[in-house]
Design brief:
Layout lengths: L2 H10 L3 H7 L4 E5 L4 E4 L4 H10 L2 H13 L3 E6 L8 E10 L5 E10 L2 H23 L2 E6 L4 E4 L9 H4 L4 H4 L4 H9 L4 E9 L5 E12 L5 E10 L1 H28 L4 H16 L3 E7 L5 E8 L7 H11 L4 E6 L4 E11 L2 E11 L6 H31 L10 H18 L3 E9 L1 H8 L1 H17 L6 E6 L2 E7 L3 H14 L15 E8 L8 H17 L4 E5 L7 E4 L2
Parallel strand pairs: 19-20
Antiparallel strand pairs: 1-2, 1-5, 3-4, 4-5, 6-7, 6-10, 8-9, 9-10, 11-12, 11-15, 13-14, 14-15, 16-18, 16-19, 17-18, 20-21
């Protein structure tokens, strides 16, 4: 014997190999710590499985037997064996010389084939039940009187199983009599018959019913059994798709009409006309919303009878502030049924479309759906129009000061110059450039420099007249266009600006470099064909002449027939 077997025999007073060898089935010897110490020939496969897999459940059962000193049981599925090779073990504690459990012996018996087959049958029935429940919403069986004799445990359509069992299928589900006869008490096999019933809350539900007749031993019909699946969502989706196809065709006509127009106003007019024609509306009008949530007065009308009466327009305008709505509006000669749909873009109401019919011509769901589709497209169109207007505004505006930029100033002054030549009036162009501005940025930073630019922009705007134009040309260069201004008036304006700009000293980089302005003035000659570039060049040269003269001054450039003037604020 090995030394381990000697120790086992010494502790137990038995020959472990002899004991295990005499047992006809699998037998194992465990230490009180759950380790496999020995096995007979029939138990070798079980020992190898435990050694390789380290089955925690078996080990815990062995430890419990060792601790409690009481007989226990456990089971083990042999690795690599046939499906029925499951072993049931009886665990017997063995007391050693120290009166403590030192070992546990396990006597095993293979599970009976009948037990394995029973387990397989139970598993198969459970699988069948699970598959049936997965493939349907509920299963049922009815008797010959059409009352439910069985309903799956979870019930159906808001009813519990107990509420349905014993109840007449047609009455409790509020089904059509003919449908109920065919679905729940027919003598023929049916597959996916669609039956509309009502659920416990009274809502309509569409069921796809499959059933088979139940026959007794003599072949007599005694009832039905089957499955039901709720297909309401699918049926409504089919109906919605059909309506959507129709709406899409009609909507396509409206959208095509909008796309064929380039100008925003013409596009809205085309949308209104097409919508009125498609819906057979007496009137149709479209309105855009401003950013402050008020609506513009520009409304597009359509319809053979001209614009809608004023009472309708006013009633609709009030309604637009709330939401989509239907309303009846009385006029002097008729009552109109008006349908309003607001247009939105990213959640914000940016307009609306309204249609009107005589009060006896009601709007149906298809009409509402179409108008909703048009409103959705209008919401996008309104946003594009608004973005175009905003981009146009931004392309002409200086971002920091909100004055005209160089491009917008050039366009506006060009128009003014052409008008001056027709009227023989004079005007003046002032070029205003900051003195010692770079020192502000170097000492105080660009934020302080931006504050100075904004301050000057506000100062120039506040001193301008109606009809004058103020712009930031870029960097620290500004310009003013003065309508109906000759040389004397332009010089007086330059002097007053120099006085006002003394307030810029608060932004100076230091006392030795005070922030101020130098101004160049160019006066137009109505009798000449001087282009805008020439006028700008003269104003720019005059400004540099003022800087060379000591800054904080102005210089006036008059047409070549006159003498240039220089001056400073008194």
């Amino acid at each position: 014997m090995t030394s381990q077997e000697d120790r086992i025999q010494e502790n137990l007073g038995i020959d472990a190999e002899a004991v295990l060898g005499t047992y006809p089935g699998p037998a194992l010897l465990f230490s009180h710590e759950g380790q496999v110490l020995a096995a007979n020939r029939a138990g070798n496969a079980a020992a190898e499985t435990l050694t390789r897999r380290g089955d925690q459940l078996v080990q815990s059962k062995v430890l419990r037997t060792a601790q409690d000193g009481a007989v226990g049981t456990c089971s083990l599925l042999i690795d690599g064996g046939r499906a029925d090779e499951a072993v049931e073990f009886v665990l017997v504690p063995l007391v050693g010389t120290g009166k403590q459990v030192s070992h546990v012996i396990a006597f095993g018996k293979q599970a009976e084939l009948e037990q394995s087959l029973m387990g397989a049958l139970v598993a198969s029935r459970q699988m069948f039940k699970d598959l049936v429940e997965c493939s349907s919403d509920f299963t049922w069986e009815t008797k010959s009187d059409r009352t439910f004799s069985y309903v799956s445990n979870r019930g159906a359509l808001g009813f519990t199983a107990s509420e349905l069992i014993g109840a007449d299928a047609a009455s409790i589900l509020d089904a059509d009599e003919q449908d109920a006869v065919i679905a729940f008490s027919g003598t023929d096999t049916i597959e996916d018959l669609e039956v509309w019933v009502r659920d416990a809350a009274g809502e309509p539900v569409c069921l796809a019913v499959s059933s088979r007749p139940v026959l007794d031993e003599d072949g007599r019909w005694v009832g039905n059994r089957g499955v039901c699946k709720d297909v309401t969502v699918e049926k409504r989706r089919e109906r919605d798709l059909e309506n959507a196809d129709l709406r899409q065709q009609l909507l396509g006509e409206v959208v095509d009409a909008m796309r064929n127009e380039a100008e925003p106003q013409h596009m809205l007019g085309a949308a209104a006309r097409s919508t009125a024609q498609v819906l057979g509306a007496r009137y149709c009008w479209i309105v855009r919303a401003r950013r402050d949530a008020t609506f513009t007065g520009a409304v597009q009308f359509a319809g053979p009878e001209g614009p809608p009466p004023r009472p309708i327009v006013e009633a609709v305008r009030l309604q637009l502030r709330d939401s989509d709505e239907e309303l009846f509006v009385k006029t002097e000669d008729a009552t109109l049924h008006v349908l309003v749909h607001v247009a939105r873009y990213r959640g914000r109401v940016n307009g609306a479309i309204c249609v009107a019919r005589d009060d006896d011509a009601y709007w149906n769901e298809s009409d509402r759906g179409l108008l909703n589709g048009v409103a959705n497209h209008l919401g996008i169109a309104f946003a594009q129009i608004e973005n175009g207007e905003l981009l146009e505004e931004l392309s002409r505006t200086d971002e920091l000061t909100q004055l005209f930029n160089r491009r917008a100033f050039g366009e506006e002054v060009g128009l003014r110059l052409r008008a001056l030549r027709r009227t023989s009036r004079k005007a003046s162009l002032l070029f205003i450039d900051l003195d010692n501005f770079k020192r502000v940025n170097d000492v105080h930073g660009h934020k302080r420099g931006d504050d100075a630019l904004i301050f000057l922009a506000q100062l120039l705007t506040s001193t301008s007249r109606v009809g004058d134009i103020v712009a930031r040309l870029g960097g620290d260069e500004f310009a003013m266009w003065l309508e109906d201004t000759d040389e004397q008036a332009a010089a007086s304006k330059a002097e007053s600006i120099l006085v006002e700009c003394r307030a810029l000293k608060q932004f100076s980089g230091d006392a030795d470099h005070p922030l101020g302005v130098s101004i160049g003035v160019a006066v137009t000659d109505p009798s000449s064909e001087e282009p805008l570039d020439g006028l700008v060049t003269r104003a720019d040269e005059a400004m540099y002449r003022a800087k060379r003269a000591g800054k904080g001054q102005y210089a006036v450039s008059v047409p070549s027939t006159l003498q240039d003037v220089e001056g400073q604020a008194s």
